[in-house]
Amino acid sequence: MIVAEFDVVVVGGGHAGIEATHAAWKLGVKTAMLTMDLKAIGRMSCNPAVGGVAKGQIVRDIDALGGLMGLLTDKAGIQFRMLNMSKGPAVWGPRAQCDMKYYSEVARETMQSLPGLTLIEGELAWFERMPDGRFEISLLNGCRYITRAIVVTSGTFLASKMFTGLETSIGGRVGEPSADKLSECLATNGIALRRLKTGTPSRLDPDSIDFNECDVQHGDDCPWPFSDRHVDGSVAGFGADQFWGDQTNKFVRNDCVCWITRTNLKTHDILRSGFKDSPMFSGRIHGKGPRYCPSIEDKINRFGDRDGHQLFLEPEQADIGRVYINGFSSSLPADIQLAAIHTIPGLTRARVLQIGYAVEYDSVDATQLYPTFECKKVPGLYFAGQVCGTSGYEEAAGQGLMAGINAALKVKGEEPFILGRSESYLGVMVDDLVNILLDEPYRMFTSRAEYRLFLRSDNAEARLKEKARKIGMIGDGDWADWVRRRDQMAEVKTRLAEESASPEDANKILAAGGQALATERTRWINVLRRPGIDPEKFFDVATPDLNISRRDRWFMYAEELYAGFFDRQSREIDDQKKMESVKLPPDLDYMRISAVSIESRQRLNAQKPLTLGQASRIPGVRPADITVLAHWLENRP
Description:
The protein is of the alpha+beta class. It is built from 20 helices and 21 strands.
């Protein structure tokens, strides 16, 4: 019996599932979230933190596009830090330690508060595409549903196994089962799967840790929240009186600390003694793990000359609860892990509450997907998150947002929403995933973005807010607040270019920044362009009559600081956008274009790019063949 019909059903309640569900709901289509455990919505499977270098920029992109992760993090955050502040604003990375239990509670409550959204607890056993293009979904409990689109956000739960030494169990997270039936269903539908691996460290009892032997790490004196959205009531589950909009960010909690310690040679010797029973080294784990987030045994094996590795002891809740050993992920036998932990300063008496383990799982080769995350072989089927071969909450959430938006837009018969590499870190990630055949989990870095000067955390709204508004992801109050700030910044820039500063006033800024002092009047805009100045102090002196937000001060500073680079790179971006505007028919048979090399034709036929720009980034497709293809498109009959 068919229980209900939907426009979009999202399978999974993790970070990708939350964003996909919220986006589809926000765009006005009838949406349901199907998850094995409603209590696990938004659960932080591994580390209790959001953001970091490049990852934090992704969260800012999500927020500018009307997503939830920034709002959830601000509400559940317990320590906020801006990473890389000794470098330029282009590589700053906002990061927040979270109360992981509260984060999940807030995420679940937010989903439950969305009027008209259906939450279904159960496990998908099978889906089948019907003659009219819709899907029939069957659950293990016998319930069946009809939907026009499916978004699979199954994380690490597809045919998943957990490993600790010689012990193996079924599941994608401690105490939670594996989604074997869904994995079988995908394979039956001709979707290529591959095995990947991830891992998590032990959790410790804080009462057994000697914190005085560790270095304390505080949050920033003045924290940066992830969201600048002045809530107008359109974001269900959040209220304007809780946080945001305050110049000093006083509503963001920032009173918790982390601690830093380090492994040593004795630690390494104990870890090496367990290599013979390591599932990773013995070949029992076949999946490839993340290169840039390796297990501790992999670090010791790859960097044997190091005398130690830095570890971060992070509280999982505001009242500490358990302590997460960031940097000590392991699948070694439990006794080896415990013995090694007891050699680390501060942890010699540590009691382990949960031992570290590795997870091996099925993932989807994302080159089978369009940049909308729709499957090329099965129209209407979308994928997002760790199932696409990525690692990290932030990457997953970004994919979920894009997949949910595009699934809803397709249901509504509207044009897809695709971001370019010069427009956002999400655009970079999507382009990489659908064009590059990965053999290891993908993690975002600033180095992956060739236009990272344009993709800063401070300018996410300037890059993306208007795009989000056009498709319906931004509410009236949120948009009005941004327009006010945008117009204010334009007026301020004009004022700074027209008004001049006395040497006395200019030197208040220049002296503090270690810059050469002014001897005559100079335009305020020229003072702002000097590297090393403090933009917050600058605007206090230059525009004392204006109430300019902290984020907007840094945005205007970065725009002027990098102005010379912008002019040069803008030309490259314009060329790229021209190529992105050239659409390619999705059913084009490239083998017909004899002037293109056979290798390029084969790769183009396999990938089916949507634009000439995307075609140019497919590995193995020659630049000369792109020129030929462009000429063929202009002159085809």
